[in-house]
Amino acid sequence: xxxxxxxxxxxxDFPKPGILFYDITSILANQExxxxxxAQMKELFKDIEFDAxxxxxxxxxxxxxxxxxxxxxxxxxxxxxGKLPGKTFQEEVTLEYGTDxxxxxxxxxxQNARILLVDDLIATGGTLQSACKLLARGGAKVSAIFGVIGxxxxxxxEKLRDIxxxxxxxxxxx
Length: 174
Hints:
By secondary structure, this protein is α/β, with parallel strands linked by helices. It contains 5 helices and 9 strands. The strands form 2 sheets. A 7-stranded mixed β-sheet has the order 5-6-4-3-7-8-9, sandwiched between helices. Helix 2 crosses helix 3. The two termini are 25 Å apart.
């Protein structure tokens, strides 16, 4: 069993005072840690059929892509507004400091598709909840959610209660 916690860089007071930032770039720079994450994803979801993997911009892409490639599944990108050139579905995301909009190409979302939704860190669950709604606009359903890091003290399960959520490392409030 790999100790993933040791591979995660913790940066106090970023992006503002009082916030402890969990930096996954240190996982990506560590081949053993990154390989461990992908191997754990494969194990966690080995018995679940998916039709596609959706990654949330931008760090979610980094974990979704190798998993999708391994499982021979399409990779669907969920991006911030204005980053995709084609026709998109849009969904507003409520953030602690305002709102944002996320988008997905309409043609990438298939009717009745079973989706694994991937992000690097699950905090309040707001972005993931909006991504689920976004994919539902195209007729797809998120079957499971994966995050490398979970912050359950921020109560993300309140927003994601009807979906299987898997994380590799969970942190209590610091």
